[in-house]
């Protein structure tokens, strides 16, 4: 059997922008107020009456070529056997090099422990056969998680069938969060429309 | 995914979960990720004990599992055995954990010591609180003044043991706050086909015609409906058309957003019906056999609603109305459905009937992929005394008190906050404060609401993970089920569930009442209720229900067109297009006449994540804690309002000041403010305050400077649709001026 390589597909055709993933993550990983491992960007575009909305759920891409791992001076970041990029809380010295290096801005400093954290696809859950909390909760089933090397997994089947995009492919990090129907504007627009 | 249908998939999923739960440890082998309905500790990697229950934060009542960390609630996840929500859950349900450990949660009964509303309280024992209430109730009952006992709750909580207790008080005034939101819709639905609301078989549907509903943010069946809608849009290539004055999340992600002038959905629906009839695209068999009107008569009635006339009134162009009507009739199964954008108008009743007419015209009634009858089990049916719930109208209740048409001795509100939630907050506040009108008020809630602040007695309520309940929500798999809520943890502090309170009260009262509540405990009552359901009668079944959280007949298959067997629950036993008010018609809204230059129609709408009773939950408040007034960019330019300016909204009853947000996503004649924010009680998080508590998170609150928003109800007067009897929230004309 080949090695496991986990990946996530986010089917934006199904995403309804309900923020369940954001809250599921807060609950599962005890993420404090003020910081996020997973969140949803809401944008609105067009001119009345031709206006539409896009939602872009964001989280760590658990890249194939993670810059955060390369830059870490204390080897706190590493790629697990299953492809997930993890952070060792005991090694981290909070130098924030990884935060500066990450092109996706998914890292933050834990407000109490003062170490750097990010989404690790609920590694503790995945290890025992559970899906990440956001995937299990997503009410519209927009998030799909599984093994890229298993042709029978739902992610493999979707990737074989659907055109997918990744964020900032030009950087060469080879992200492993694949989006179906990614809206270019949702990626480009910096300013998030306030939640109203 | 089309090959495996949802039901099969569910069975496989359930099987997998059970197999693994008995499979003990994994012995180093990494299992395939996919197991659901379990939770693991991050530090010990041990599976947590989970107890299935049901969420009661919205009417969808998802099956959930509460996971334990020793004695505490660690997390809430979806229950994969549950056929409605399929193990999915929403942000509100997950944040139920916050509700349990809310730093501002009420933990003891409190009695007022200062003047009413002064904010001085004394902790008292349950003993004392219950004695005070039961003495009053006994006197009321003995003196035959039951109508002076007012119980204020919603449909979800007015059942089971609570209902049984209240049945002892014939003629008691029961206020149902569910009526506040969509009474016009439910009355219209009842009048036309005997159902309270349509259940959409979304999974099999091919065309969704949405009038003013916002399922992506707020819906009665949020999780159940959305997941099937999302699948239908991909698997069936279903189209979603949304007509709404506001670009809600639903509208923004629909295939088409058609902005419409508020309150004119009715004429659009009727014009579409006209197109369908004129072009002969209707289901002739359904109309002739199952409705109470011949097509010829319908045709001549509808001929007055031309697309040109509808276009003029609704601001949608005639060609679009015609095109959508044809698409709707051609892409069957198609459904037309509505939301608060329809129900909360003064013509809501007739509009709802017009929309249901569209469904009848294409014959998609109780068909695969159509609008379906509710498949449920009758629960706790101990032949209760029929109480006329909405007469006098719930909305006009405080007006009736003020006019002394209604006398009150004891007012008891359970998880209800009329002072904040009702139209015209100042007026409601004034009545609640007046001791001559409201001599004794009891409020039972989890946090101190605005209404509780004006009460004489506050009782701490248990949350849904601390109570028993039995439920049978309409099934989206078209096979009825029963689900069980059971305590996952012991109630915090001295909190009690409503059923417990009523059980304890009944024991302090005369024989006639205590005999009717002859149960050892709430669990005992639930057990006996379960035993009445065929197929669930023995103890073994009850234990299984406790373990799984849900029970349904595994051999049952979805059956459609039930009306062919049981007919409709209307007077004529038919689908009554011709009702007691005649055929569906368009009633113009009087506010639409004489609109001056700076007047806009105020739309108060429900948003994603938030609701008035969830504002003190930290995870939700972080996402949604403040609101602004949404104004169309062109209108804003005309009124010289810029982004972030403060604007004053003035109606006939009051004014509010709020920050403006300029957007392209709203009809130019409307202004929108979200509901549920702007609390002046309800805990400190609800007021966007940073504070020290046991939970370190409360010190990290970063949105103090954003404020906690504005409650639009200060400018919304009481206004009733005479046919539907429900509040018309969205017909308020406000003068909008920049505050300089």
Side-by-side strand order of the widest sheet of chain B: 5-4-16-15-14-6-7
CATH architecture of the domain at 6-62 and 119-188 in chain A: 2-Layer Sandwich
Task: Name the helix and strand elements of chain A from N-terminus to C-terminus, one letter apiece.
Answer: EHEEHEEHEEHHEHEH
Query: Which geometry of chain B do the CA atoms define?
Result: globular
What is the alpha-carbon Rg of chain B in Å?
26 Å
Radius of gyration of chain A: 17 Å
| Biggest sheet strand line-up of chain A | 8-1-9
Stretches of chain B where pLDDT is under 50 for at least 5 consecutive residues are 1-28, 382-387
Notable traits:
heterodimer, A: 196 residues, alpha+beta, Alpha-Beta Plaits, 3-stranded mixed beta sheet, two-stranded antiparallel ribbon, B: 740 residues, alpha/beta, Rossmann fold, Dimethylsulfoxide Reductase, domain 2, Barwin-like endoglucanases, 26 helices, 25 strands, globular
Topology at a glance:
The complex is a heterodimer of chains A (196) and B (740).
Chain A: E1 6-11, H1 20-29, E2 39-47, E3 50-58, H2 67-71, E4 77-79, E5 85-87, H3 97-101, E6 108-109, E7 116-117, H4 123-126, H5 133-137, E8 143-147, H6 154-161, E9 177-180, H7 184-188
Parallel strand pairs in A: 1-9
Antiparallel strand pairs in A: 1-8, 2-3, 4-5, 6-7
Chain B: H1 6-21, E1 50-54, E2 63-69, E3 72-78, H2 91-94, H3 96-100, E4 110-112, E5 121-123, H4 126-142, E6 149-153, H5 160-166, E7 173-176, H6 178-193, E8 199-200, E9 207-211, H7 222-235, E10 239-243, H8 249-252, E11 256-258, H9 265-278, H10 284-290, H11 295-302, H12 307-314, H13 318-330, E12 334-338, H14 340-343, H15 348-361, E13 371-372, H16 397-402, E14 410-414, H17 418-421, H18 425-433, E15 440-445, H19 450-453, E16 457-460, E17 469-471, E18 481-485, H20 498-507, H21 511-516, H22 522-531, H23 539-548, E19 550-552, H24 563-566, E20 599-605, H25 618-623, E21 629-632, H26 633-638, E22 646-650, E23 655-663, E24 670-674, E25 732-738
Parallel strand pairs in B: 6-7, 6-14, 9-10, 9-12, 10-11, 14-15, 15-16, 20-24, 21-23
Antiparallel strand pairs in B: 1-2, 2-3, 4-5, 4-16, 8-13, 17-18, 18-19, 20-25, 21-24, 22-23, 22-25
Helix pairs in contact in B: 4-20, 5-20, 6-15, 9-11, 9-12, 9-13, 9-15, 12-13
